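Researcher: Structure prediction, please.
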Amino acid sequence: MALKVVQWGTGNVGTFALRCIIGHPELELVGVCVHGAGKVGRDAGELCGLPPTGIKATNDVEAILAMDADCVVYTATADLRPFEAITDLCRILASGKNVVSSSVVPLVHPKSFLPNLREQLDEACRAGGSSLFTSGIDPGFANDVLPLVLTGLSERWEEVRILEIINYATYAQPQVLFETMGFGQPLDSTPLLLSPGALEFAWGGTIHLLAEGLGVEVERVKAVHERRPATRPLQVAGRTVEPGTTAAMRFEVMGMVGGKPRLVVEHVTRLDDQLAPEWPSGNGSYRVVIKGSPAMRCEFEFEDEHGDHAVGGVVLTATRIVNAIPAVCAAPPGQLSALDLPMITGRGLMAR
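Model: Predicted structure follows.
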């Protein structure tokens, strides 16, 4: 019997998640919760470019919470509203529905999340007999499951480094690009992502998940970043990024073990491939580099059906959590990380 699923949020990730749910042989879409009034009443298929499904979108949260469903796919943006997102998650979990989500990214490793909020989520899971799994591609598969599997080939390892190398010029989330990440802003501005502690908060869960999986103790998580300006006007997401403003950014979030950065997440993000040629480059990829014996380097490249790397990464975020639904529904109640689930495969998804 197919698992009954609600899609909550139809933005950048949610649209692709909705498409995945509709096409998944083990899932049945039973509801869609939207924020924008313009989407209310529209068919789910119309919202993601598929034929009509008969399921109409609603902004009636109480009706969604009362619905008979096994799981909610929660993809509402949480960058600027993390506490509201936690409240949403608690209400959904307490209503007896499991949740898979890409929104509150530190929850990839619940054990290292803020204790008071972690306890609220634990209590909601207990009340509803439900489970919560947060993942995506990054934070998510590319910097937890993939590197952990590769370390299983080691005789010994010295450093595990995971890089995201992507041109974000086609990333269809202007708020994230220009407000959260600070593209188009002066080089000395402080966007949300670069505010004190923000990088450590967003990717600290990944560092702690890696540490748990590898049996090491992280003494502290530290971050560094650098930026480069545009050298010509760039048209991005309907705006012009002017010369001299931020158009490339590189950061590292490091898990310090024995005083050395042993676990590192590095992002190299450009709006123009010609910028910062001294930084790592690639064709839109995640790269895992393991120093040790043997030394390893794994390049994980991807693109959507139109050849777009940035959009391909968004699709991967959606598929990672949607394909995990059967395993999450079968898991014991509580907050889960990738270490708690079996291997997630594309069972039943062969193209016909």
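Model: The CA atoms of residues 33 and 63 lie 9 Å apart.
Researcher: Thanks, that helps.
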